Amino acid sequence: MRLLLALALLFAAGPVLAQGAEPALVGTFSDWTAWTYMDGRNKVCYIASTPLDRQPRNVNRGDVYVNVAHKPGVRDEVSFISGYSYDANAVVVVTVDATEFKLFAKDDTAWTYTKEDDARMARAMAAGTRMIVKGKSNRGTETTDSYSLSGFTAAHQAMDRACPAR
Known about the structure:
Blueprint: H1 2-19, E1 24-29, E2 32-39, E3 42-49, E4 53-55, E5 65-71, E6 74-81, E7 91-96, E8 99-106, E9 109-111, H2 115-127, E10 130-136, E11 142-148, H3 152-162
Antiparallel strand pairs: 1-2, 2-3, 3-5, 4-11, 5-6, 6-9, 7-8, 7-10, 8-9, 10-11
């Protein structure tokens, strides 16, 4: 739980700390948590999880997590934080059960290419049980992070209630 609170603060630290607000825990749902915070007058909701397994284990990395966010005008924005800077030409491959997604990377974060890809990935995550994220660092290290999707649907529903579509 402490790690997920740390993730909440890391994800929201810039806007939150500048405005004095703190993320509020909506709930914990198996391997996922749901959060909200205010970015000015806009409410932002997100769900987050950390990997159950990170390979290779002997590599020094920072925080590693995934989050899915609802922001004003944006639904289900998916991003992956790797804990290292990705290779400049990196294509990050995310596999949800048998469905594969290719993401682009900048610095330590990977994103889908389009809002439609975000929506497809969120639907796959809701229907799936396991997610694998493969990336390559700017030092050439190939990594594989394994996530549980247990609790994703309940966390996503809590996020939808906290930030309903307009």
